[in-house]
Amino acid sequence: MVKTCSWGTCNSDSRFPERIVDVRFIPFPKPKTNWEKCARWVKACGRPHSQLNVTNIDRHKFVCSKHFVKPDGPTEEYPDPVPADGSKVKKSRPHWRQRSPLSVLSVAAELTDLQQRLVACKEQLHQQKILNEHLLAENESLKKISAHTSSDFLPLSVDMILKQDTEDKKLFEYYSSLKYDTFVKLLQFLTAEDTPKIQRKRKDILSMTNENQLLLTLIRLRHNFGLKDLAFRFCISQQAVSEIFNAWIDHMFLLLGTIPIWPHHDSNKFM
Ligand SMILES: [Zn+2]
User: Fold this and answer.
1) Region labeled Disordered — which residues (predicted)?
2) How many angstroms separate the CA atoms of 20 and 30, rounded?
3) Does this model's pTM top 0.70?
4) For residue 77, how far is its CA from the centre of ligand 1 (angstroms)?
5) What letter would DSSP give residue 4?
6) Distance from the CA of 9 to the center of ligand 1, in angstroms?
7) Would you kindly state where each structural domain of the chain is located, as residue ranges?
């Protein structure tokens, strides 16, 4: 078989022994088995497309050993002919399979490590999700408890009665024996100049408004609820209920006693 070189302007030809001193003919990579390498060689040879292209590569196409970086022809580092157009020779990029076994091992180890970390992260995420759900549920139940608590344990007060009151219920009147308007007027009258003298400045008394203190007094007058009962309803101590009630009774006696409720006995004469 006649062997000729397909590279650039090379005239290596097996028919002329003088042209092939120390020359080896290296068969072209076949497009069927290694299309990419074949295409690189075609490009490196730099012949016109009509003369040399991937489709006309067969077992009769060769490149002589003169066109490789190493005198013996292709090596692992330089597997392709040098470009006939004079451009730079490219080293082959080592495929990961061609890397040293050690580096492959280290890559594999890194990969395993990453996978393990990913699994750990996933597990953490899963745990966090469960925890979040748990916290959300706890939050909801705490909200419910707090709503329950605040509505269940509100002390009795003017505001609270008014909030619950309706035209039919007449709650305010029931508790205090007065209509709210009258209650307000009475409170204004009783606190216009002075307020009841409560001797001991207890914390639970101080936190109670005059309005609610008067309410407590009126409720006791109207219904005669016990001290314990009123202490429970107003969330204060029995001692405080007693002190408030006594102070307001004294105060009312002083102020209301000055009002001439009864007409003078002289005006009754003619009745
Ligand atoms: Zn050649």
Assistant:
1) 74-93
2) 24
3) no
4) 20
5) B
6) 8
7) 17-93, 94-153, 158-260
Amino acid at site 98:
Q
CA of 32 to the centre of ligand 1 (A): 23
Residue 141, φ and ψ in degrees, nearest 5:
-65, -35
* Residue 85 Cα to ligand 1 middle (Å): 14
| Structure confidence by residue, pLDDT tens digits, 169-196 | 889 999 999 999 999 999 999 999 888 8
Using 50, 70 and 90 to split pLDDT, how confident is the model at 271?
very low
Q: How is residue 88 written in tokens?
A: 């730079």
The percent of residues above 90 in pLDDT, for the chain, comes to 56
- Element at 146 (helix H, strand E): helix 101-152
Q: Positive or negative, the Cα torsion across 93, 98, 99, 100?
A: negative
User: From ligand 1's centre to the CA of 11, what distance in Å?
Assistant: 6
- What CA–CA distance (Å, rounded) separates 109 from 103? 10
Minimum mean pLDDT range among 77-91, 116-130, 188-202, 208-222: 188-202
